[in-house]
Amino acid sequence: MAALSLLRRSASGPRFTERFPPLSPEGKGLLAAVIAMWVLATAWTGMRIFSRNIRKSAYYAEDYLYFIGFALFNGLCITYVLAICVGGAGNDIGRLSDHHMYHYTRISIANQTMYAATLCFIKISLVAMIQRVFAASTSLTLRIASWATIVVITCWALYTILLGFFICLPVGSTWGAATPTSCGNQTVAYSAVAVIDIISEVMIVALPMRLLSGLHIARPHKIGLFLVFGAGIVTIIFSCVRLKYALNIDFDNVTKSFAVASVSSILQAGVALMVASSPILRPVFDRTILHWLGVSAGPLHPVITPRLPTTMQAD
């Protein structure tokens, strides 16, 4: 995102001479979103671990994929903070010094890489959970669809990462080591990131739906299952919002546009972590919220396992 902005920098006031540029309203808004989502994602991750400990449950492949995604999410949050406080994200590009742009160009490429890697691991974690929960299913369609979804997710992540390096030539212009001589259509390229992202999330949500609809269980239980596995719709909404911003990014004033567009990105990543953990948090809610309300939850069992085979369990 940063390379093309070096081609044209229109001044909108005197350049900042401070080592750390002042926080703009856009920068403050992004910083608040980063802090809020980090707190929530960390809380949900803690509850995920607590839930496993309550049930004395083993950790599965999806858990380790999730923890990698959470570690990358922490890195993503750090890049946002650095982009705002060191690179001047949120300010008009014309007011940033060469020192600020030196840091911004490098931080922005790290941010894009962290964003793609974070969502990649979180999404694959969700697919891995669905594969395990429905392991008893003999549906060839589900197995093929789940692996096809993983391929789409991986290709999306690679495309998103490589796009940051190759959208402008020479490649060194990505981090300010050279002056860009040519650039592709960034609006189309970054809109494609959001579109493929939406497609992959729709695929994840759709994976278990046919099998869930065929379960012979009580209607309230079936509705609960649809709500649990359909929670990914929330991330689809944020992806659609991100597409809207991608279509309207001002690449000539990318530092300011970055802060505005990135709010939806950090919300999407944080909510994705929460969605990935939610299916296994029943033990935590039983011991906290229901206990405080004085409601008896009955025997402690996974939220998604009413009358289902033992292999179809989220934890």
From TrEMBL:
GO cellular component: membrane
UniProt KW keywords: Membrane, Transmembrane, Transmembrane helix
A Pfam family of this chain: Fung_rhodopsin
Record-annotated Rhodopsin domain positions: 47-286
This protein's record includes keyword ATP-binding: no
Signal sequence extent: none
Membrane topology of this protein: Multi-pass membrane protein
Chain ranges passing through the membrane: 30-51, 63-89, 109-130, 142-167, 187-211, 223-245, 257-281
Domain of life where this protein originates: Eukaryota
Protein family membership: Belongs to the SAT4 family.
Protein's UniProt name: Rhodopsin domain-containing protein
Lineage: Eukaryota, Fungi, Dikarya, Ascomycota, Pezizomycotina
